[in-house]
Amino acid sequence: MISLETTIADTCALVRIDSQNPGVQEAACAEWVGNRLVAAGLAPTWHEVLPGRQNLITTVSGNGDAPRLVLLAHLDTVPVGGGWTVPPHGGVVSDGRVYGRGACDMKGGLAVAIGLLEQVHRGMGGMAGDLLLVATVDEEGPDMAGAQHLVASGLLKPDDQVLALEPTGMRLRLAQMGLRWIDLRVTGRMAHAGRAHLGIDSAHVMSRIVDRLKERVAGLPHEDVILGRPRFTCGMIRAGVATNVVPPSAEASFDVRILPPMLIDDVVPMVSEVAELVMADFPGATFTIEPLGAPRPPVRADEGSRIVSGLRSAYRSETGQLLPHGGDDGHEAYTDASMVAALTESTSCTVFGPGSTDQAHTADEYVPISDLDLAGRVMERLIGRW
Questions:
Q1: Domain of residue 137, CATH code
Q2: CATH number, domain with residue 282
Q3: How many Å apart are CA 111 and CA 117, to the nearest integer?
Q4: Final residue of a domain: which of 230, 264, 296?
């Protein structure tokens, strides 16, 4: 069996390694994972994605001809940010939780995957297919370069069953919203604030665009029983040079999340249309749009795929209950499994793992130890029946 004590210790050790993206990135974390896998008797291989940033791929060979099970776990985290009451890289264990940046998203899931490979390597049970762990870089970045490199490398096979051990509140994530990031720049005209009528207030123009985009996305007639409704967030906005100067330019970064029947290629034209309508009220103002990072279309796993049916069977055998799915936990979050599905058109990619997205990317991030325990036990059941 996977040792819960070891999983907790590995989670704490991983949290104590700073792997913020952007920031110091993943090199130290990747080195630790590589050493940990070697110490377990495994032979990870390194695959350069970007200068100084490498995916790690580790394989435990099966003894039959079943499809491979590919586990995805990213090495990077979002920036620490403020508001913490515990050390963000302390790996503190308290009240049945492991605290720290990345504990939930997703170093707890990575620790579970490491423990699983170690046990299978030691002969926990014969798998009919190979078991792979792909520890990726840049999942939290706009390009998701680690997942893109994995697909471009040709390593994946058409019948691979892909599972990201991302935080889902221990629910099955069958579908993902589409996601497009966009940078928008508005150019106005600088003037003295005392003679503001001579200028064009770019911050005002941008605020109008943001407000109307909120209304446009909220009014879209699309709704999904799992995914809910489309969403729009203005994640960052920057404008101005001084308090007493009409701001000559403003920049904003948008996060637009869609669902079928919308296509990911519909997002930029929608934003452009709204911006054009606003410009009509501000003669002389202009704007430019630049898509940021990789386009991320909506994806959905096949209910009948081996990975989905296998997880459901394993969960029911372990808990006596049906594996929950849907709800509000995480179907908006785009993962490496989503990117693999989008690039390969595979319907055998899904997400299930310890921790909740309610704690991901927050201050005092944590993963419940009970989730680490249950995730390990369910994964052992899955492997035992592969």
A1: 3.40.630.10
A2: 3.30.70.360
A3: 10
A4: 296
Whether residues 242 and 344 fall in one domain: no
The residue count for the chain: 386
Residue 226 pLDDT: 84
Convert the pLDDT of each residue in 266-300 to its tens digit: 999 999 999 999 999 999 999 999 999 999 999 99
Domain end call among 232, 262, 296: 296
Model pLDDT for residues 284-293, shown as the tens digit of each residue: 999 999 999 9
Are 61 and 166 contained in the same domain?
A: yes
Question: What is the domain extent for residue 369?
Answer: 4-176+299-384
Asked if residue 328 has pLDDT above 70, the reply is no
The pTM of the full predicted model, rounded to 2 decimals, is 0.90
